[in-house]
Amino acid sequence: MKTQTDILAAKFKRSSDLLRYRRLNWLVETNHRIRWGFEAFMREARASAVPLDFSLQQHDTPNEGVIQLMPHRLPIGVVNRRLDPFSEDESARDAVVIETGGELVASLSFMGHVHFIAHPRQSDRSTPKTKEIILAGPLDPTDVTPAVIRTVLRKYLLILRSSSVLGMEDTISVMERAQILWIYFADLRKTTQLARSVLTMTNEWAKVLAAGALGFLAAYLTASKP
């Protein structure tokens, strides 16, 4: 007959084996699949004359890993002028506004799960309220299929276009705007924060709804009395 400690030891071993397997799967297969997907996207972007150049970086430790698709810095045709009353040449004080950011990060956490995280573009003239958006995850490395990578890239392009000031935002359709709103809403952390705010009654709308429900209940109980 198994004791409680026998059951505990078996569960620890299974958990440890699964963690080791996820890390091994990332090392042997998943990181290469993600890298190939990102590289294929970069080739397609160059062939289509996308006005952004991309580069790829990868950093690995024994227990974690990061693959990062990075758009290059790009001037947006705007300058910040600092007027100097003692300067004869005002243009010499101009600072060219550069747009940066817009990375897509595939990350293996220390728990062996994969997340895909997008960073919006930003500049001195445009600072996004949300610094990063979780597009997918946590995923078991075996679940990161080519279809998943293509879906992540489609979502990433919507974030990239909508956060850039290079005129790309003007071409976003109504359907694409709805998809962007859903991407932000579906961000795991945003959903968690919303659920917590409702449960702890810190959300103002939740307070209004709760007050209305209590008022309705009180009125119903009062009306039902003989």
Give helix % range.
Answer: 40-55%
Instruction: Give the end-to-end Cα distance, rounded to a whole number of Å.
Output: 62 Å
User: What is the N-to-C order of secondary-structure elements (H for helix, E for strand)?
Assistant: HEEEEEEEEHHHH
Q: Can you give the mean pLDDT?
A: 79
Proportion of strand residues: 15-25%
> What is the count of β-strands?
8
Number of helices: 5
Spatial strand arrangement across the major sheet: 1-2-5-6-8
Give the class from helix and strand content and strand pairing: alpha+beta
Q: What coarse outline follows from CA principal-axis ratios?
A: elongated
> Which residues sit in consecutive blocks of at least 5 with pLDDT less than 50?
none
What about the largest sheet? Answer: 5 strands, antiparallel
The Cα radius of gyration reads: 25 Å
Output the keywords.
3-stranded antiparallel β-sheet, 5 helices, alpha+beta, 8 strands, 226 residues
Provide an overview of this structure:
With 226 residues, this protein is an alpha+beta fold. 48% of the residues lie in helices and 22% in strands. It is built from five helices and eight strands, in the order H-E-E-E-E-E-E-E-E-H-H-H-H. The chain has helices spanning 4-47, 146-163, 174-186, 188-199, 204-224, and strands spanning 54-60, 65-71, 74-81, 94-101, 104-108, 114-118, 121-122, 133-139. The strands form two sheets. It has a five-stranded antiparallel β-sheet. Helix 2 packs across helix 3. It is elongated and about 90 Å long.
